[in-house]
Amino acid sequence: MNGVVLVTGVMAAGKSTVAQALAERLPGVAHVRGDVFRRMIVSGRREYTPGAAGPAVGEARARTEAEAQLRLRYRLSAATADEYARAGFTAVVQDVILGPALPAYVETVRTRPLHVVVLAPDADTVAAREAAREKKGYGADWTVAALDAELRARTPRIGLWLDTTELTVGETVEAILAGRQRARVI
Predict the structure, then answer these.
(1) Burial class, 185, CB count within 10 angstroms (exposed 0-12 / middle 13-18 / buried 19+)
(2) What does the alpha-carbon distance between residue 19 and residue 29 come to, in Å, rounded to a whole number?
């Protein structure tokens, strides 16, 4: 695999671990972690949460700003991936990019080929992984069930979708490599 490889899925789907393992299997790879761009905003960061905008004008403004920051994060990771690819590296990008944001992200990346891998373990597996990890992504705003529903109902079926419920990290990487032609979207 060369060019850009996007590994996406819900929080706790295994994106970070799988992307790193995939990067370690390929020659000349940069691992682009999308969340890094969110954390770079030190002051004025607005966290994107579902249903955060209520009837109040201030809440709607905060929701609009959170959405703008999320789109900025996606543009920055796509541009970074393109720059690594231009320098001769394969860029493995890892981030939560779901729903209509996924085809928009695909359009933003300029590098060809572009591969999309969607990790889609079942919701019970995601919940168990979330409980076992130190970093917590779910809570009152985001639930495993809600994000899983977003993935399955609103995310276009582009690229390689893998049910990783029963797969180890190594098996997942092997499945990605074996399915690289299906993962290639452009």
Answers:
(1) middle
(2) 11
170 CB-side CA count, 13 A: 0
User: What token pair was written down for 95?
Assistant: 């981030």
Sheet holding 90-94, edge to edge: 29-33, 90-94, 4-9, 114-119, 160-162
From 81, 75, 108, 80, select the one nearest 1 (Cα to Cα). 81
Helices (H), the chain: 15-25, 35-39, 57-86, 101-108, 123-132, 144-154, 169-178, 180-183
Find the helix packing angle between 15-25 and 169-178, rounded to 10°.
60
Half-sphere exposure of 84 (CA within 13 A, CB side): 22
Give, as one character, the DSSP assignment of residue 32: E
Place of tokens 């990019």: 97
Name all domains of the chain by residue range, CATH numbers in brackets: 4-183 (3.40.50.300)
**The pTM is what?**
0.92
pLDDT in tens, 64-79: 898 999 999 999 999 9
Task: Dump pLDDT digits (tens) for 29-44.
Answer: 999 999 999 999 999 8
Are the CB atoms for 2 and 114 separated by under 8 Å?
A: no
37 Cβ contact partners less than 8 Å away, ≥ 6 residues apart: 72, 73, 76, 77
